[in-house]
Amino acid sequence: MGTTETGILSGRLSPVEYEKNFSDLHPPLDEHEALVASDRCYFCYDAPCMTACPTSIDIPLFIRQISTGNPIGSANTIFDQNILGGMCARVCPTETLCEQACVRNTAEHRPVEIGRLQRYATDIAMRENRQFYERAEPTGKSIAVVGAGPAGLACAHRLAVKGHDVVIYDAREKAGGLNEYGIATYKAVDDFAQAEVDYVLAIGGIEIRNRQMLGRDFSLSDMLAKHDAVFLGLGLAGVNALRAEGETAEGVEDAVDFIAALRQSETKSDIPVGRRVVVLGGGMTAVDAAVQAKLLGAEEVTICYRRGKENMNASEFEQDLAAAKGVTIRHWLQPKRVIARDGKVAGIELDYTTIEDGRLITTGETGVITADHVLKAIGQTFEADGLGVITLQSGRIVIDDEGRTSLDRVWAGGDCVLGGEDLTVSAVAMGRDAAESINRVLAAASQPAVAVA
Amino acid sequence: MADLRNNFVGIKSPNPFWLASAPPTDKAYNVERAFKAGWGGVVWKTLGEEGPPVVNVNGPRYGAIWGADRRLLGLNNIELITDRDLYTNLREMKQVKMNWPDRALIASIMVPCEENAWKAILPLVEETGADGIELNFGCPHGMSERGMGAAVGQVPEYIEMVVRWCKQYTRMPVITKLTPNITDVRKPARAAKSGGTDAVSLINTINSITSVNLDTFSPEPSIDGKGSHGGYCGPAVKPIALNMVAEIARDPETYGLPISGIGGITTWRDAAEFLVLGAGNVQVCTAAMTYGFKIVQEMITGLSNWMDTKGHRTLDDICGRAVPNVSDWQYLNLNYIAKARIDQDACIQCGRCHIACEDTSHQAITQYVDGKRHFEVMEDECVGCNLCVNVCPVQDCITMVGLEPGTLDERTGKVVDANYANWTTHPNNPMARQAAE
Ligand SMILES: Cc1cc2nc3c(=O)[nH]c(=O)nc-3n(C[C@H](O)[C@H](O)[C@H](O)COP(=O)(O)OP(=O)(O)OC[C@H]3O[C@@H](n4cnc5c(N)ncnc54)[C@H](O)[C@@H]3O)c2cc1C
Ligand SMILES: Cc1cc2nc3c(=O)[nH]c(=O)nc-3n(C[C@H](O)[C@H](O)[C@H](O)COP(=O)(O)O)c2cc1C
Ligand code: SF4
Ligand code: SF4
Ligand code: SF4
């Protein structure tokens, strides 16, 4: 390993080490491996794996199509339900979704490798740029999609298939949402997020306008004036504050910003990281930030979580991955104060916690961990202006089971809605289903009115 | 998208995938579900004559063989023809055909080998609106003891006679289903053709005992300690069925006779192989019984994607395409010389190719080279038999490479001849010598 100097520094590793550290986490299956893996599938009836998939991909069918040498047909089966099936194959926590439900997991604790098989088929179709959908006759309707994340892209694609015109407005430089700015580097290598955006847009009829921010550049009523319907796939633009002393010290950073910068870097050698990093939080973001900090050459990385292992949102698999990469996970520790020296982080003081009468309390005992870099991954919040009187609850947009908000002609889905699961695949499902609902409503509205005698 | 519409002896169906006459087609309930799942047609479970129906055993009817991971490879059954009342079947057939006019519905029939029996049942079947009939001359157990099924199918004269009656008493197309339990399948096919059949279908099941219980010494499936031979079907029978289909497809006497291919079809690829070997459509039983009716979706999309990839637009573009390439051994090109080649990067050094060749073939693969474990083909010993390719656990690790004409075959010391030459003219062939003399 390269330099272990204290301070937040870039270039801690050699170019070769960076490349090795940020390569594919699970290398793709080759043909033979895919055939062997697919042969294990039982082609279950009313398959539990399929029920566990938020987008209800016909898993037994797509796996059987792989096993019979028909990966293109297999990709078609996947995309029918989930047009971002390529990204989902890479980022879904399959160990808590389809693969957990797989009957072979029940039988022998070794599920069919559904995620990797899904990647095998979708990779082939995308490499050959096989497009499976054609647009229906133009309907003349125009829909605004705000947010180009998984929810917005899935919604836009399904709307385009139905013959509607779609304009996507997104605040950021590039489309993709957290696929582009959030997912861990080693889960989506080779600029896959942008390749997937291109693949989705190839259907036609979808225009993307970047650097267009709701609340700054336009309001929801502007959108309603210009378009027949609006879908909001805004994600979670805000982050929770630590509310602890010393939070403003240099070296305290939001994990999502740290990851976004990392994702945008070509070589990763320009991304500074501390020698001793403390990550606060217990979810997927915390694990991703910690692991990538380690891979950038940090000497010590510690995740501090204020509850127990069983409460962590990061899956067992993610926790094991962190451990395997040399990250220490500590539980029952809550940040009390960032210790700063000359305005820079020097450590963090933590309260020990416990549960009493169902409530999390501090025990009175404290400890200090030396650190020069603190990454906050203590949750994101929904943040958007310009929405008018839309109904929110617990800080998220309220929708019904078709994705309709409290406002006429406005649908929403993904992380920004109440009941969202903060998963790429759930965002895709909600975007797709909202598109179906929008289509139904618009089609009904354009039926000629029945004359009443 | 390839056009999968099928026209088999004038019977139209949206795709060439029919369910074979068997439990999946025993009643309206199953057939309705099959059509919903996308099957192009069904051959209804074989009907018997009017009167009390046959009875089945009330214990296990199936035996099987599996791979180590419980993949079903072969199934064996001792079921008879339908055990439901004739009129119940006919009523249901009529209703189903009315509900699904675009799908093919064929009645399979097995009645005693008497003119009156056939004369009696045919108008009843015709009245249902069925698209055609299939004569079950195949069932190898239970019915043959009663002088029906395979007992008829094994006597070409009977086949011809029954087909003739059927052509006489009905306007429906007649498909004659053949038994594989016979030495030369071309004989019954020729007989069916002389009788005027519109098509043949094959194969029915093969006489078999799948296993024996070594504690009770009873064959499986065991009914109260005894077993009986049954009919074998499923993936294991496909190679046998393919050969029989090809034999009929290329026999000058039956050339052009439409064939409905049956036997072990489990994937689109199996179906495509039957079609290119001369079948006009295919029938499936065991795959549906193993995985359910949804399996047809894999077959339809797989066949369609393959046709798209290869630029085949309709079934006519593929049917029979491999038939001209099925040849008798004596006409194979003896001047074609191939050698095994091992891809050293792919080889995992298991040694199976070496021991197969060393112990049982031609001692043409090394074990050590310069004192190191290394498996390589010695071209001066390799006869090109392909055994190593088939035993190697690594896909595409060993390939057979044809030698270019003009190059030296190190084994024989002869230069490879570009000209085709076969056994009929080979100097070692006594017949060839006789002809020359
Ligand atoms: C670090 C991290 C790692 C993750 N890892 C995984 C993982 O491995 N697997 C998994 O399944 N899920 C993971 N998730 C969750 C997953 O990324 C999200 O659930 C998913 O991206 C939600 O999709 P979305 O479309 O709702 O929102 P987003 O992906 O957040 O997209 C929202 C889009 O809206 C735009 N936007 C926001 N506000 C405005 C505005 N006012 N005006 C215009 N545009 C706006 C944004 O620029 C963005 O493009 C991770 C999340 C994070 C933060
Ligand atoms: C349980 C069972 C019952 C069958 N019954 C009949 C029958 O009544 N009539 C018939 O013509 N064939 C019958 N068959 C044979 C099938 O129609 C088919 O020819 C054979 O199973 C080979 O096809 P497969 O390998 O796809 O199963 C039966 C097969 C099975 C497994
Ligand atoms: S549960 Fe497992 S074995 Fe069953 S269909 Fe799904 S992947 Fe295949
Ligand atoms: S398959 Fe159904 S009918 Fe047959 S033995 Fe099992 S439960 Fe009984
Ligand atoms: S059988 Fe295949 S893998 Fe094994 S030694 Fe021979 S060439 Fe190598």
Protein model, in words:
The complex is a heterodimer of chains A (453) and B (437). Chain A is α/β, with parallel strands linked by helices and 453 residues long. Chain A contains 17 helices and 17 strands. Chain A has a five-stranded parallel beta sheet with strand order 3-2-1-4-17, sandwiched between helices. In chain A, strands 6-13-7-8-9 form a five-stranded parallel beta sheet. A three-stranded antiparallel beta sheet of chain A has the order 10-11-12, with no helix packed on it. In chain A, strand 8, helix 16 and strand 9 form a beta-alpha-beta unit. In chain A, helix 4 runs antiparallel to helix 5 and helix 10 runs parallel beside helix 17. Chain B is an alpha/beta fold and 437 residues long. Chain B is 30% helix and 19% strand. In chain B, a hairpin with a 5-residue loop joins strand 5 and strand 6. The longest helix of chain B has 16 residues. Chain B is globular. The interface between A and B is medium-sized, with 18 and 19 residues. The complex binds flavin-adenine dinucleotide (FAD), flavin mononucleotide and iron/sulfur cluster (3 copies).
Q: How is the largest sheet of chain A built, in terms of strand order?
A: 3-2-1-4-17
The chain pair with the largest interface is: A-B, 18 and 19 residues
Give the CATH level 1 class of the largest domain in chain B. Answer: Alpha Beta
> Mean pLDDT of chain B, nearest integer?
95
Mean pLDDT figure of chain A = 95
Name the helicity range of chain A.
25-40%
Largest sheet of chain B: 8 strands, parallel, barrel
Quaternary structure of the protein: heterodimer
Bound molecules: flavin-adenine dinucleotide, flavin mononucleotide, iron/sulfur cluster
**From the helix content, strand content and strand pairing of chain B, which structural class follows?**
alpha/beta
Query: Roughly what fraction of the amino acids of chain A lie in strands?
Result: 15-25%
Poorly predicted tracts of residues of chain A: none
